[in-house]
Amino acid sequence: MTSDTSRRSFMLSALAVAGTMLLPRPARALTEARARALVSQVVSDINDAIDSSGSQAAMIREFERIFGRYADVSIIARSTLGAVARRVSNAQMRSYTDAFRGYVARKYGKRFNEFRGGRIEVKGVREVKSWHEVVSTAYLPGQSPFEVRFLVSDRSGQDKFFDMFVEGISLRLSEREEIGAMLDRRNGNVDALIQDLRNAG
Amino acid sequence: MYVKREPLRIADVKVLPVIHPPFRRLAQATALISVVFVAACAGGQPDAQAGRGTFDPYEEQNREVHAFNRGLDRNLVRPVAKGYDAAIPDDIENALLRFSDNTSLPGAIVNNVLQLNMRGAIHDTARLFVNTTVGLGGLFDPASEMGMPPSTDADFGETLHVWGAEEGAYIELPVLGPSTQRDTFGTFVDFFTNPLRYVLENPAAAVDTGTGIGGGLSRRSKFSETIDQILYESTDSYAQSRSLYLQGRRFELGGTAGENYDDPYGSDDPTAALEDPYDQ
Question: Which of A81, A100, B127, B173 lies at a C-alpha separation of 20 to 30 Å from B101?
């Protein structure tokens, strides 16, 4: 009897130990190398997309793929809602995030052709607060080079970027302003906003 | 219930004198007095820049000006810029852009000196020298081709910032567009301290004004998609241009990076971190 109990408790603790070892580490494992690797991947995908001379629709699809794969769309979408994010249901949040992804892809994807013949180079990485900031330079034909900065975090469980700055202008903060205005126009009705967003961009 | 976002929260903003550009001499005198005033108020303020909110007490008037500017762009600037772009060959347009950039260098040098940024002043002076001589009066840009440092684009608004003046309220200026109280004042002083404009009687000044406008039109057509997107495609073009201007300007003046930006993932309070990082 006693041996049974102790065996059972041993098994339990063994399982528990194994369980903790298997759980994803909450510790900050994101390193400069990984942040740089992520952005290099994004940049190489973008450079490929710029080189392939597809139609505008193809460009938008490509941008949506890159954005969905390397950006933490849910935290970006959530933060553009601001305080409103507190009062929406999970289902609303899901459809909002989807609508937001499509909207961003259309709005920025259709500008991809401006990058034709250009390239982006990763210049450096530094740790800021709980994330890493990867600085790159964009060289576009006929324009002075400008800075593009990616903020990379692994707090979603994966290495993803959660904001992008072009010459100091944040995609997340600018879209927050825009979404705020769209919400104001609909008197704060999130469902109406989601509808609008599906057709915007 | 819909929660309206909190407006401004900069605690103590020094209101700089807003200048209406009437008379030139008088204005220059006022400028000097005001500089002293601004410098005096600025003393002893730690860094209220860190507030980073949107301080827009004149929103109502600003929105009127914005509506005017938008109409001006739609009816005049945009079509003229398109025509200009179509009529003038790209090479000439680029040459005029470079020329207009070159004429802004003396003012930038003065501001670098005022900011005690001697390295910047030397770089800009070297650039001015090379582009004015080898570059045939600034029509070409051999300085960049030789790999010289890019121009600093220093302006008096930046000088005021370096001296410790605060940003002040957001202002949208007629024709000139988004600004702040500090930058309005800076733009105004720059206009009168640009050495080329001192000689208004000189024909060179007329050329300068001409290429200035040409340069502006070139930029309007060059960035046409960006500007169109802001002015005609965003839901609230006023709020969007205000946000973009303040973000861009604060970046230029150095200080948007990291320190003023909050982690949207947050940790303790799941909602607090979702507030605008600048509002905290």
Answer: B173
